[in-house]
Amino acid sequence: MRTRTWLRRAGAIACAGAVLAGCGTDTTDGLAVAKSGGDASPESSAVDPAALDTGSYPTSPAPEFGRATKDNILDVETQRLAEFVVVPFEVDPNLVTVKMPTMVIRSHENLNAVLSGNAADVAETHGMLYGYVSTAATSTTAVTDPSRSLVQMVLRFETSDDAAAAAQEMHAGLTTVDSDGTGVETPETIGILPNTLVSTSEYTYSAGPEVSVNAFTAHNNYLLYTWAKAPADEKEWTAQAVARALDLQGPLIDQFPAQPTLAQNGGEPAELPMIDQDKILLYAIPEEDEQADSGNDMASYGPRGMSHRSTNPPLTYRVLTEAGSDHNAVYKTNVYRASDDAGAQMIVEEFRNDLTSQGYVEAPSPQGLPDAVCLSKDTTDGTTDYCLVVNGRYVGEAYGTDDKKDVDQQISAQYLILEQADQNAA
Fold it and tell me: Can you give the pTM of this predicted structure?
């Protein structure tokens, strides 16, 4: 575990979940301990709104987003789906280093980042609607160290027949003998998974001989895909990982409240879902470019959805679940809302320890905003800056690389927005 971050834009690093905050003068381990902004009286707060530099960022909540439209329904559905896709650490607690591809899949073309061969064409032929994919590996210190990896993906099709046909054809695309007489993958079976199409491949990588397994399972109108890789002498783990992933994924995807298709709704368009689940996204600062993160942001995620791209997935999932932070906003800034002030403080405490244990050090707070705690760390990508602020049940977070002034402006604007947040929201 390196930091509590989210992956964004071509692998760049941005934070979500490194939630710290500071108010007043209380300290623990040399860092400010956040007091609830909802409990602070005007006399106890040293914030000077007139001194805040917010740059060009908004300082008031956005208008309510309303329902999805035909132009953004794929983004909303894929983001909602993330909460119902197994996170690799749930399969093996050592799979905690997030890798790409971990993202929304809003087009068959996105499958080229996940599967080789004819998978994208097969998905298009059978009318794939959308999906989500999550990838993680065990932590290593060098590329030559042996490791285990897992890819977990769920694709939605219009019908169960489409899903079954796609599974068969994608599997065939990996196992069909090439024109030169060689096969790409070796068809196999896993005894306890009679309905799963399995193929394996063995090769030598920098870490030594390795084995990987591809597994396709049609589950109602979903295609469940698992790829597992391990050192060649740990082949049994790959089969166990596939079995465990499917054991979790089937019941989980059955809970997904998918938007009905026209056929499923008797030929009539169904009412589209809300963009901003639990009305949390309106408190986050927006990106100038709504497609800055290819559909992964401008989003409201639950604890599991947040965990997929966190660099400490188990902690993220546990803390947000225990805090009752059912939906969390991911945009230019990130916003968390716990069930109560104590839950917000718990988020702060847990995530603070997560960051400081990785070598982050205290940095100056923005002018006029001593209630924010800022930290920084020199990384291979530059100096990573974090600033966080808490207000009652809400925690806001801003982040950036090599631009402390911009991060200060973000968190200052975020503070003013959270001053107007509904502390009694359901």
Answer: 0.88
Q: Which amino acid is at 426?
A: A
Residue of 371, 364, 375, 379 whose CA lies nearest to 395: 371
Res. 63 pLDDT band, cuts 50 70 90: very high
pLDDT in tens, 335-369: 999 999 999 989 878 887 888 888 999 999 999 99
By C-alpha distance, which of 337, 343, 349, 336 is closest to 20? Answer: 349
Closest CA to 397 of 315, 318, 337: 337
Model confidence pLDDT, tens digit, residues 212-251: 999 999 999 999 999 999 999 999 999 999 999 999 999 9
Residue 117 or 12, more confident: 117
